[in-house]
Amino acid sequence: MLRFACGLCALAMVAVAPALAEQDKAPTPAQAAQQQRMTTCNADASQKSLKGDARQNYMSACLSGKMNQTTLMKVCNAEATQEKMTSDDRKAYLSTCLKKSA
């Protein structure tokens, strides 16, 4: 019985070895670019103090490379809603936010 258990352990080690060796590979250029984009977008979102839906919208657009005026409007609008801005304050904030983000 002990011989069988040792044989089973040896077989498991041989089966797992390729998976362990694969973990040491360097990321592909596409993976490295995506990691860099994630780092950059995350830093930008933090610098703009984005939170909640505004951050989620910004990160989604930034990572997909689709930052346009519509996306920026969504991000700025979500920020204004989060800060509970109304009327003239909201309009002034949206104007500043869109100019600052462009």
The percent range for helix content is over 70%
Low-confidence stretches: none
Percentage of β-strand residues: under 5%
Number of β-strand runs: 0
Largest sheet: none
Count of separate DSSP helical elements: 5
Rg, nearest Å: 24 Å
Structural class: mainly alpha
Mean pLDDT level: 77
Shape: elongated
* H/E element order: HHHHH
Distance between the termini: 71 Å
Question: How are the secondary structure elements laid out?
Answer:
Layout: H1 2-22, H2 29-47, H3 52-64, H4 69-82, H5 87-101
Describe it.
The chain has 102 residues and is mainly alpha-helical. It has a domain at 32-102. 80% of the residues lie in helices and 0% in strands. The protein has five helices and no strands. It has helices at 2-22, 29-47, 52-64, 69-82, 87-101. The mean pLDDT is 77.
Task: List the defining traits of the structure above.
about 100 residues; mainly alpha; 5 helices
Brief description of this entry?
Helix content is 80%, strand content 0%.
